[in-house]
Specification:
109 residues; single chain
Length: 109
């Protein structure tokens, strides 16, 4: 019984943290974006921060209600740049939710 309780206590913190929004290093991501043209652009950096903040704000209330497979897949997609991007995360979530609501069917016709 003690082993079962220990396993349950160990499992539940992982389960609750899986539904937490990922914490991306937005500043590092936006520094990369701003430096794409060679010398860093403050205008690009500021625009990037604004876009990331908007995407984060749009996702934070719905994140815990998303299916785990979408959370995991989109977290991986959004982290492909290294530091991670909430704009990529939001786009991925939007596309996955839309595709799940409109699944294609194969036909032999």
């Amino acid at each position: 019984m003690r082993l079962l309780m220990t396993a349950l206590v160990a499992f539940f913190p992982l389960a609750s943290s899986a539904a937490d929004m990922p914490r991306f290093d937005v500043e590092a991501h936006c520094e990369q974006v701003a430096a794409v043209g060679g010398s860093p652009s403050n205008s690009l950096y500021n625009s990037c921060i604004d876009m990331e903040q908007s995407a984060y704000n749009g996702l934070k209330d719905q994140w815990s209600g998303l299916p785990a497979n979408i959370q995991n897949h989109c977290r991986n997609v959004a982290s492909v740049t290294g530091p991670g991007s909430y704009s990529l995360l939001e786009s991925c979530v939007d596309m996955e939710v839309s595709a799940g609501n409109n699944r294609s069917e194969f036909s032999f016709d």
